[in-house]
Structures are given as structure tokens and as C-alpha cells.
Write a structure and sequence with these properties.
509 residues; alpha+beta; Nucleotidyltransferase, domain 5
Length: 509
């Protein structure tokens, strides 16, 4: 029997999730195994890389148990981006892996984040890319880099465990900020700055490349057939984009998660502060992404800290968010004069201002919980319009449609607000596990289940519901958006002064 199934694995910040995919993009089996996140100091984020491997093997074992493994032709891994681990010559971790959410390298960003680094890597200077953390290690833990055999992203670490080969994909390695986006090769100057050479890195291949067969003992451990192929994957953002079916311009994905990531594909390499540029999961293309730190995180913050809504006490089998959303839906657009600047975790694209803070503007005595909740939903939508308009300004073909995924996509109210604010069609993705699905598409194309990556994307993706903008509501939001756009520029100096005052106050205690 010819193999007609594939496994997509998403090794995220909190868990490894394995999904067995059919040729039409339907999930046949799903397993999820969590692992721990360590934050030993404020602003730090680390994990034991061995936990990545243990969780992945367990998730794949469980997912494969309920299907005929003889039908599984390949496995592809997608993963949390920017995270990396320093290994010795034997491939053993020298220290905990440093994660994308680790912001300890703020000083290094200030010292080394030049326009040239931005031009080479496509990443505006900020503490997320791994290069700045490697510069931190060079200064604070030089003994680690002195013993390094390899520095690999999460994908490269897992691929080596699966195949014995030191290879990773361009779309997995480039978020580290060590790759020249114009050439697709490591930049020797950036490597040398932190004491590394290309010999310390995994070989780069394009997403969808067959890296090789799984090691026999690994296949036995995972419960798969010997000879199962390992296919090069991509970072979770690029995989999610592919999983929504996007392989051409004019359509963007919008991931409504803890943070909000949106992006579209471009045939040409460009760079600007309005977005970060990565290699797309489809070889020969780039992914231009906007990034907002405060998404569903902001909503959860409000529910947990201020809402005092307990559905269980009311005997309701619904979430507090659902109750607040129902109440917010009864209010008019604009929450009766309330605006929210959603910078709970600072401002990312295009301002890259870690001093920026969240703002609730326009409070009066008429406002209650439902007003604030609606204003939170609208504030994120206003910010996304600002970010999407910034992308449109550099694209040859403007974005006409958004495909929404992530936890927030389950909210019809929020999706309609986004359609009205952005004045674009919003479609909700059919498959919630779109990130894993993108990995599955790469595997399916590599083993011939589909003839190409775009054909796999077309055959395996779909949407479930559509939201069209309402002209009258959009007109109301237009007036409010003209006010919203002035909030950050007006308060930017205040944010800086507040940061200095807070720092002084902390130092004086």
C-alpha cells in the first residue's frame, strides 16, 4: 500500500502536538504532550531541550497508535521560532535553551542593533532574534560558547535526533537572525561577532526538502515504520500561513493568539520597520509579518484581574469571555467613547518600543465591564488595521482578504469587528490546528501525495465561515480610527518619561 498519510508536529512554547493528516487535510489522530517553561529571572525564558525531544516522541507515539503506520510516509516538524540551544560536540545541551520570549538582551539590542543588521536579517532590532542572545552569552557566559559544537534552532535539534544529520530549513533558522535573507546563507560577520563559524551551525535546506529516513532505532521508539522520511519544516508562523492555504499575495493570515501575528507572502526580499521578513514555507518566497504582543493575553488579563465573572457560580457551562462577549455585543461600535491602546507587552511593529504601555482612554461613569471588554477587542482590531495598512504600503498587490486562526477566531463578534475595522473580508479557518497542518502539507508534497506545496495547500485547507464588512459600522470605525492613530505618537514621550521615573524609583528602594 502506498503511503497516503503524514504526521505534522508542532513543538511550541508549551507542548509538542502531533497530528496524523489525511490527503484532504482532515485530522485522523491528535496527541499533545506539555513541557515546562522556566523563567529563573524576570524577562528570562528557558527550557530543557531534552524536554522538547521527550515530548515530541511521546506525542508521536500516541498519535500513531490509532492509525495504520504503514500508511504514514513522512513526518515534518514546525516549532517555536527564535529559540535555540547550545550543544557540545556530542550534541548534548551545554545550558538551557534560550527562548523567543527571553528579553534579557535589551542592552545588546541597543549596542548592536544597527541598520546593517536589519538589512541583512530582515529583522528590526529587538530582543527576540537569537543573535542578540548569543551576543549576551559571549559577554556573560563565554565559557559556554567556547565549548560549543553546534548552535541549533529547535527544528535542527529535533532533525538531528530523528535522522542523525545536522540540517535545518532556511525558514526555521532565519528567525535566529544569523542568515543573510538576500542569499539564503549564514552571514559570516554576524557569526564571527558572537564567536561562531558556519561549522557550528546546521546545514541549511529549503522547506519541504526530504532530509532523509528516520534512524531505525528512533522509528522503533516512535512506533513508526523504518524508512519513514523526515521532511524539512518551517517556523510556526510560516507553517500557520501555509496551513491556511496562503501561497500567493493578496491574502494574509491573522493568528489571534496570545500575541497577534499577521502576514502575507512576497516574491521579493524587502525590509522595513513596519514588518519583519522571513523565508516563507513555500521555497522562493518571503513572509512579511506584523507582530503585536498583546492579543488574547490582554483579554485573559482583564477576565482574571477585573471581570469578577464566574460562570460556574451561575451554573453555566461557558467561559467568562463568552459572557463578556455577549454583553459587549449589545453595545454600539466604539464602546460609547472608549478606546484602548493594546500595548500591554510593549509595542512591536512598527514602533519597536519596549517602554510603550497599554492605555484605556475615555473612561466616564457610564462605562462598565462590557464597555472595557468591547474596547479591548476593538483596540486590537484598530492596531491590526494600522499594521496591515503599513504592509499594504510596500506591497505591489494590496491585502484584500484575511484568513483568521487561533483561539480568538472562535469569537464571531471579534471577527466581525475585525472585518468592519479593517474593511476587508475575514474568513475563519476550517482547521484549528493550522500550524500542524502547514507542516503536514510540506510532508504531503515531499512524498508525492500532492504534486507540489501549493497543490497540497489548496487540497488540504479550507474555511468555515465568512465575515463581510458592514459599510455603516465601518464608517463609524473610520472616525474612531483617526483618533486611535494619534494616541501612541502623543504619548510616546510620556512612556519614556514613565520608564525613567519607574527605573529611578526602583533603584532608590
Amino acid at each position: 500500500m502506498a503511503a497516503d498519510l503524514v504526521i505534522g508536529v508542532d513543538c511550541s512554547t508549551t507542548a509538542a502536538k502531533a497530528v496524523v493528516w489525511a490527503p484532504d487535510g482532515m485530522p485522523l489522530s491528535i496527541a499533545r504532550v506539555p513541557f515546562e517553561l522556566s523563567q529563573p529571572r524576570p524577562g528570562w525564558g528557558e527550557q530543557n531541550a531534552e524536554d522538547w525531544w521527550a515530548a515530541l516522541t511521546s506525542a508521536v507515539q500516541r498519535a500513531a497508535q490509532t492509525v495504520d503506520v504503514a500508511r504514514i510516509g513522512a513526518i515534518t516538524v514546525t516549532h517555536q521560532r527564535e529559540s535555540f540551544v547550545c550543544l557540545d560536540e556530542d550534541g548534548k545541551p551545554l545550558r538551557p535553551a534560550m527562548l523567543w520570549l527571553d528579553v534579557r538582551a535589551v542592552d545588546e539590542v541597543e549596542r548592536y542593533g544597527t541598520a546593517d543588521v536589519h538589512r541583512i536579517t530582515g529583522k528590526p532590532p529587538n530582543a527576540t532574534p537569537g543573535w542578540y542572545k548569543l551576543m549576551w552569552l559571549a559577554e556573560h557566559e563565554p565559557e559556554v560558547l567556547a565549548r560549543v559544537g553546534r548552535v541549533v534552532d529547535l527544528h535542527g535539534f529535533i532533525v538531528h535526533r530523528l535522522t542523525g544529520r545536522w540540517q535545518t530549513s532556511t525558514a526555521s533558522a532565519d528567525p535566529l537572525g544569523l542568515v543573510d535573507m538576500a542569499t539564503g546563507q549564514y552571514d559570516a560577520g554576524l557569526l564571527a561577532a558572537c564567536g561562531l563559524t558556519e561549522a557550528n551551525m546546521a546545514e541549511l535546506v529549503e522547506p519541504g526538502t526530504v532530509i532523509g529516513p528516520m534512524l531505525d532505532d528512533v522509528a522503533d521508539r516512535l512506533g513508526l515504520m523504518r524508512g519513514t522520511l523526515v521532511v524539512a519544516g518551517a517556523g510556526d508562523g510560516q507553517a500557520a500561513q501555509l496551513g491556511t492555504g496562503i501561497t500567493a499575495p493578496r491574502t494574509a493570515f491573522l493568528n489571534l493568539g496570545s500575541g497577534i501575528i499577521s502576514g502575507t507572502v512576497s516574491p521579493a526580499y524587502t525590509h522595513a520597520r513596519e514588518y519583519r521578513t522571513l523565508f516563507a514555507a513555500t521555497p522562493g518566497q518571503y513572509s512579511l509579518e506584523t507582530f503585536m504582543g498583546g492579543g488574547t493575553f490582554n483579554l485573559t488579563w482583564f477576565v482574571d484581574r477585573f471581570s469578577a465573572v464566574d460562570p460556574r457560580a451561575l451554573g453555566l457551562d461557558v467561559s467568562a469571555e463568552s459572557i463578556l462577549e455577549t454583553a459587549a455585543a449589545q453595545l454600539p461600535p466604539g464602546a460609547e467613547g472608549l478606546l484602548v491602546l493594546p500595548y500591554w507587552t510593549g509595542a512591536l511593529t512598527p514602533y519597536w518600543d519596549h517602554d510603550a504601555r497599554g492605555v484605556i482612554l475615555g473612561l466616564t461613569g457610564i462605562h462598565g465591564k462590557s464597555h472595557v471588554y468591547r474596547a479591548l477587542l476593538e483596540g486590537i482590531a484598530f492596531e491590526q488595521r494600522f499594521l496591515t495598512d503599513g504592509l499594504d504600503a510596500v506591497l505591489d498587490e494590496p491585502i484584500e482578504r484575511l484568513i483568521v486562526l487561533g483561539g480568538g477566531s472562535r469569537s464571531p463578534v471579534w471577527c466581525q469587528i475585525i472585518a468592519d475595522v479593517l474593511q476587508r473580508q475575514v474568513d475563519v479557518v476550517r482547521e484549528p490546528e493550522s500550524t500542524c497542518l502547514g507542516a503536514g502539507m510540506l510532508a504531503a508534497a515531499a512524498v508525492g501525495i500532492h504534486a507540489s506545496i501549493p497543490e497540497a495547500a489548496a487540497a488540504m485547507s479550507g474555511t468555515s465561515r465568512r465575515h463581510e464588512p458592514h459599510p455603516a459600522t465601518s464608517a463609524t470605525y473610520d472616525r474612531l480610527y483617526s483618533v486611535y492613530r494619534t494616541i501612541y505618537p502623543s504619548l510616546a514621550p510620556v512612556f519614556g518619561d514613565l520608564a525613567k521615573a519607574t527605573s529611578h524609583e526602583a533603584g532608590g528602594r
